[in-house]
Each structure stands twice: as C-alpha cells, then as structure tokens.
From TrEMBL, chains A, B:
Pfam families: MerR (PF00376), MerR-DNA-bind (PF09278). SUPFAM superfamilies: Putative DNA-binding domain. The keyword Hydrolase does not apply. Keywords: Coiled coil, DNA-binding, Transcription, Transcription regulation. The keyword Coiled coil applies. PANTHER family: HEAVY METAL-DEPENDENT TRANSCRIPTIONAL REGULATOR HI_0293-RELATED (PTHR30204:SF94), REDOX-CYCLING DRUG-SENSING TRANSCRIPTIONAL ACTIVATOR SOXR (PTHR30204). InterPro entries: DNA-bd_dom_put_sf, MerR-type_HTH_dom, MerR_fam, Tscrpt_reg_MerR_DNA-bd. Residues 5-74 form the HTH merR-type domain. This is Helix-turn-helix domain-containing protein. Residues 89-116 form a coiled coil.
Amino acid sequence: MNAHALTIGHLARETGTKVETIRFYEKSGLLPAPARTEGNYRSYDRAHLNRLSFIRRARDLGFSLDQIRDLLALSDDRGQSCAAVDAIAKEHRAEVERKITDLRSLKKELDRMIDQCGCGVVADCRIIESLSPRQ
Amino acid sequence: MNAHALTIGHLARETGTKVETIRFYEKSGLLPAPARTEGNYRSYDRAHLNRLSFIRRARDLGFSLDQIRDLLALSDDRGQSCAAVDAIAKEHRAEVERKITDLRSLKKELDRMIDQCGCGVVADCRIIESLSPRQ
DNA sequence: CTACAGTCTGTAGTGACTACAGGGTCAAGA
DNA sequence: TCTTGACCCTGTAGTCACTACAGACTGTAG
C-alpha cells in the first residue's frame, strides 16, 4: 500500500467511526468503493477521508442518510444553486423544532405525573393511575 | 362470540392501535394471549382493553416496551412499594431532558449554518462548507 | 350464493447501525 | 522460519417498535 493510502482502520480512527459502519456506508452507496490491495484490503485516499468526515459531521447534526446522500450529490455539483441545500437544512431544522416541542410537552406530562407520586404502595400510585384508563 | 367479547378489530379501533401492533404486543409478551373463538379468532375482554390502553398511553409518553413491561408487572402487584414505579418514570424523564438539551444545541448549530447561507451556488455554500472538513 | 370485510399465520422490511462467526493477511519479534 | 497478534475480509443476524404484505380462512349482509 502506497504512502497516501489508508486502511479502513485508519479511516475509522481519523473520523471516530466504527469499521463496520464504514463498510455499511459503502454498501449503502454513501462512500464509493475504494481500490483494493493485493490482499483484498480496502485502500482509501484523502477524498474518501473527506467524504466520510462530511457524512459523520452531517450525521452528528442529525441529518438522515437519505438527506446526506442528497447533500453529497449537491456538493459534488459545484455550479448548482445552493437553494436545494438550504431547503434540506431548513426541512431538517423544522423537524428538530417539532421534536423539541413534542419532548417539552412530554416532559411537562411526566413532571405532573411524578410530582403527584406520594411513594406509597402501588395500589395508590398516581403514576400507575395516570397511565390507567378511566373506567 | 359473547356480548362482552371483543375482536382484535374492536380493540384496535377503541385504542387507536393497528391490528398488527396488537398481535405484535402479544408476541412480545405485553398483552396476554386471549381466548379463541371456534373460528380461531382472538376473543378479548375488558381486562385486555384496559391493559392495551395502559400500554398505548405509556407509549405516547415515550416509555420503551421494556419499561412498560416493568410498569405492568408493578401495577399488577398492588401491595408493592411505588418507589420502583417512580424510579422508572424519573429515569425516563431524565432521558427526555437529555434529548431536549441535545436537540437544542443541535438547533443552534443548524440556525448558525442556515443563517450564513447566501443562497448562491454550491461552490460558495456556507452550509456545505460547514459540513466539510477543514483541510 | 356471493361479495367483501375481517381475521389468521408467517415472513420480511424500515433506519442506522452493531455484533458476531469463520476465515484470510500482514508485520514484528524469537 | 515460525508464531503471535493485530488487522482485515464476507456474510448474516440482531437491535427497536412497529408496518406491510402474501396467501389463506371466517363471518356476515344482501
């Protein structure tokens, strides 16, 4: 393997990704299949490392693999309008906002439930009661 | 089928659950297997309906099926201390709080990213740039 | 009697990995 | 040269909480 080539293990360490996950990204078509060495090892270059870093950063920001696929396709087409990128990001942000709203009202309900618990026996438990259907 | 017996479809409508989901809960051991009619249809009673309502309400509140299994076991044991119930609920609330915190900092990052987008061409796109690794 | 709604079992798909099993490859030290 | 051990390969199955189907059977209204 030449000086610029990276094994899958190097790529994994550099990007904080598990080896299995990298192979999974390849199978999912997110990361192009690299060249192979004589011993059939994957041989990556800088471009692969950059692409994987992109994927991981986008995953950290909660983008789905489908969205990342789209973002990668757009970022490969440097002349295209950035509006599509903007749309994906905004759609994702809206989703995140929805989740925050949902979780906040969830937390309020849990707070109410837990506040009422006198911690006696289950028969009098307000938590169980508030989960049970009124007859 | 007698007057008090319910088909799986009735149960589904009453609780807003899909028929497949009810069967899945049975297979998962959350809902006890009901009696069968001559034609091999599941025949539910009020107790099943109550139990399924409990499960659905707990699911709406985001409890995992494992947690619900535990809550159901506790609620069946009316004399036991309510502390275990309280612990499950608090653990779940803590998890929800963690998620809210994570999503909020995520949203901040997305806001920053999106604010910078001048919506020109992809080559100048700040969103793509902030996803790309610095070389 | 026929149409059709409802139910049955069993299997496979979802998303984004993760965890093996059972092998092969490679580099360093004895 | 041999061996050890780290690394890599493929392929499959597991996770969670469902959901969707295929292909068959049952029940009911007209």
